[in-house]
UniProtKB/TrEMBL annotation:
Keywords: DNA-binding, Repressor, Transcription, Transcription regulation. This is TetR family transcriptional regulator. It comes from the Bacteria. Residues 1-50 form the HTH tetR-type domain. InterPro entries: BetI_C, Homeodomain-like_sf, HTH-type_TetR-like_transc_reg, HTH_TetR, Tet_transcr_reg_TetR-rel_C_sf. GO terms for molecular function: DNA-binding transcription factor activity; transcription cis-regulatory region binding. Residues 13-32 bind DNA. PANTHER family: HTH-TYPE TRANSCRIPTIONAL REGULATOR RUTR (PTHR30055), HTH-TYPE TRANSCRIPTIONAL REPRESSOR BDCR (PTHR30055:SF200). The keyword RNA-binding does not apply. It comes from Streptomyces chumphonensis.
Length: 186
């Protein structure tokens, strides 16, 4: 994960990776066959680890909004060149030329976040913590917002930092989910 974040997949060689991890390139190719498979399996490993953190955070007995804030915190990159997000950028870039099986595997990783967000929204709505919204639609739009802001953050666009991004997301959630809609600004 770190070497892909440092160099990108195009500049990664199996020989260089093998030296870094103490294996031969032939041994790596035996297990992964291609750099694309190496990338996807590395992303799956990263998402499994992050998924365990996400599930633990969502299982806590605290208000839905607090769990939503934690989900957002886990979703967003820590900053420029975040290794997990570097994997996502590589996968998204390569997915336009990928076969259906690869895109299906990628979609499953993305849908894990989506399903957890929808379930949390439904719970918050049922408990009266969030105003009623179409949870699936809201989750789709929110993930698109998170993805867009995350890309700006991970590539290090000037003027984009984690606190600013978190502020934008908090505003979005406050304006969209407040149990009592905010009064219009006059």
């Amino acid at each position: 994960m770190e070497i892909i974040a440092e160099r990108g997949l195009e500049r990664l060689t199996m020989a260089g990776l093998g030296c870094r991890v103490g294996m031969s390139s032939g041994h790596l190719l035996y297990y992964f066959k291609t750099k694309d498979e190496l990338l996807l399996q590395t992303l799956q490993w990263s998402e499994e680890r992050l998924g365990a953190e996400r599930r633990a955070a969502l299982a806590r007995q605290v208000p839905a909004r607090e769990r939503l804030d934690r989900l957002v915190d886990l979703y967003l990159p820590d900053g420029p060149r975040d290794p997990a997000w570097a994997l996502w950028l590589e996968v998204w870039n390569r997915s336009q030329n990928a076969d259906d099986e690869v895109r299906t595997r990628q979609l499953e990783l993305e849908l894990a976040w989506h399903r957890d967000l929808v379930a949390l929204l439904v719970e918050g709505i049922d408990r009266g913590e969030f105003r009623p919204v179409d949870a699936d639609r809201f989750a789709t739009r929110t993930r698109a917002l998170l993805d867009g802001l995350a890309v700006h953050l991970v590539v290090g666009l000037p003027g984009t930092d984690r606190e600013t991004v978190l502020g934008h997301v908090r505003d979005h959630v406050d304006q969209s989910l407040a149990a009592t809609p905010p009064s219009p600004v006059t």
